[in-house]
Amino acid sequence: MDLGIAGKTALVCGASKGLGLGCAEALVREGVNVVIVARGEEALQAAAARLTAARAGSTGAVAPFVKYAAADITTPEGRAAAFAVHADYDIVVTNAGGPPPGDFRDWDREAWIKAVDANMLTPIELIKATVDGMAARGYGRIVNITSSSVKSPIDILGLSNGARSGLTGFVAGVARTSIAAKGVTINNLLPGAFDTDRLKGTFASSAKKTGQDIETLRAARQKGIPAGRFGNPEEFGAVCAFLCSMQAGYITGQNVLTDGGAYPGTY
Prior knowledge:
It is a single chain. Helices cover about 45% and strands about 15% of the residues. It is an alpha/beta fold. Helix 5 (about 160-175) links the parallel strand 5 (about 140-145) and strand 6 (about 185-190). The two termini are about 30 Å apart. About 40% of the residues are buried.
């Protein structure tokens, strides 16, 4: 299927590896120009090289460009760096590393402010910076990578549960304002258990807390997923690319769960 977005330009955050990189690669294959942002320059350069190789098979008459900004997108300076590379984005994929797991008794005010700043306020700032330009051009797609914990909280991820739920509430309102009639959609993409460094860190924390070994914890988690496995960044990226497509123009304000069927609820 031709998603109809060749020639558009996307900002993809946290894209040096994992789910962010999966999204960037899927967009490049659709002929989308991408600017990727992450803090680690070495990993970012490797990601840019991978995307440059991927664009050889992209759709569209002109090969998309791949650019990057080594910056912390959760800071005003980092966001300025991303917009210095390219000013007007048609697609924005927000993504920031989740706050550390732990016991809520150990989190002070500073830990909470840091979590909210990265996982709620940063996406809001990026939406604010781009949504009016998108509306003026008649097309825009914003996809926020959040977490399945928004629907099914994980006890050791309380910082993430709280901050990302705040973003979810904000998006539910702003996605349904006048921008919806101007071709701009805002959706949240909720990953379940994907085989990334983040998941490995969660298992390490659980192992320390419970005394179980990591492989036992991995096996137990997989057993609870109807698909019988963890997801991979490539399939996650494909869902992201679809939400950015012309065909997805009637989908907005939604929380799209990608978890292999792990969430047991009807709604």
